Amino acid sequence: MNIAVVGTGYVGLVSGTCFADSGNDITCVDIDENKVKQLRDGEIPIYEPGLKTIFDRSIREGRLRFTTDLEEAVKDAEIIFLCLPTPPGADGQADLSAVLKVAGQLGKMITDYKVIVNKSTVPVGTADRVREAVAENTDAEFDVVSNPEFLREGAAVEDFMKPERVVIGTSSERAAELMTTLYEPFVRSGNPIIVMDERSSELTKYAANAMLATKITFMNEIANICEKVGANVDNIRRGIGTDSRIGKRFLFAGIGYGGSCFPKDVQAIHYTAGQNGYDFKILDSVMKVNEKQKVSIVKKMEDYYGTSDFSGKTFGIWGLSFKPETDDIREAPALYIAEELVERGAKLIAYDPEAIETFKKATTKEVLDNTTFVLNQQDALVDVDALVICTEWNEFRRPTIDRFQDHMKKAVIFDGRNLYDLNRAKKSNITYISVGRPSINV
Ligand code: UDX
């Protein structure tokens, strides 16, 4: 199939590349000339495992092209994917100006039947607004489809290639058939392509992310109770996760959810509910609990040291990204924790395998002035008063105990991601304080 992908951000690039890999002809279009040049030169601006291999192959075999010319990109396309930014506007609701602007332009360009697909996460009712914006400028036939993406950063290629489900929101049979044909190669294992109306499809995306954020938050609250009553959240996770109605995944307590999707989407669906006269109470709590959870580790540090004055102390930080296998630091707990620690007078030595540069760009001047960034995990331990773990990168899971004791001023670990086994910690003389589990050697 001939497909145009408008917007070469995270979603556009992954979708375009993966569609090309299944044999389609893809033209990706972006207004950013530098980006298009970079992509034409074979450089990918994001870090995503597995993407480069299929990107290179699709370019080599001529199935993936990049241009700044929207008209050229959509001329022969049967399907046009809109993968444009929808940043939160002043009222917390997604800003649709980029999407609607392109919709208007498409109206002026299309002359034969096209399927125009919203792939960005957009508020309920956006398909209707896009339809109106296109229709204003054309008499040609077209359909607007909602097709939300459920990609996880760090596993986007895998998620795209083998989705657990594909959701297609359209009331047009013709569009549904084209979209189903496009996605069939990705669900050969029998996973469903679920066709529904546009509004339900738009809401499905928000409901999925809000449910997952709620699940994590629920476990974080269980962890907080565990700390009060002397129970262990690991045991509870195993105890309830085996109930298939609950499920094993997304039950890991920690220092809160972050990233570019959960915080934004929970806020957006809460807002949409409010706009429609419904008070979505559970999501209000989810947001409040998560804000507190992100810095809960700082409170534990204050309790341990018996003061909120950390001047004269240096802390090592392991992990800056909001989760492993990404350099994305949007809404990362590490951003908030670093600020709180520096505010209390601490100096920091920070390490992350991928996210140091993105962190530097996003953090405050105060944090930058008081932080040394290092290029390996061990250097973040040298002469520190304690180590604070913010992200569960794999390489943090098995450091030898000697490494901690040899380098640190005092072997104290505040672990926001529950990386270490409590029995092993007990056998060492490391002070180990984690989330929802008994503290060791305090
Ligand atoms: C998420 C959704 O999973 C994806 O379907 C959607 O399209 C975009 O948002 P992503 O933001 O990449 O993807 O991250 P994900 O792996 O889902 O993790 C989100 C956050 O939850 C992270 O901060 C992670 O650390 C946290 N988390 C996850 C927990 O705290 N505990 C868990 O058990 C799982």
TrEMBL record:
This is UDP-glucose 6-dehydrogenase. One of its GO terms (biological process) is polysaccharide biosynthetic process. It comes from Halalkalibaculum roseum. One of its GO terms (molecular function) is NAD binding. SUPFAM superfamilies: 6-phosphogluconate dehydrogenase C-terminal domain-like, NAD(P)-binding Rossmann-fold domains, UDP-glucose/GDP-mannose dehydrogenase C-terminal domain. Keywords: NAD, Oxidoreductase. Catalyzes the conversion of UDP-glucose into UDP-glucuronate, one of the precursors of teichuronic acid. It is an enzyme of class 1 (oxidoreductase). The keyword Manganese does not apply.
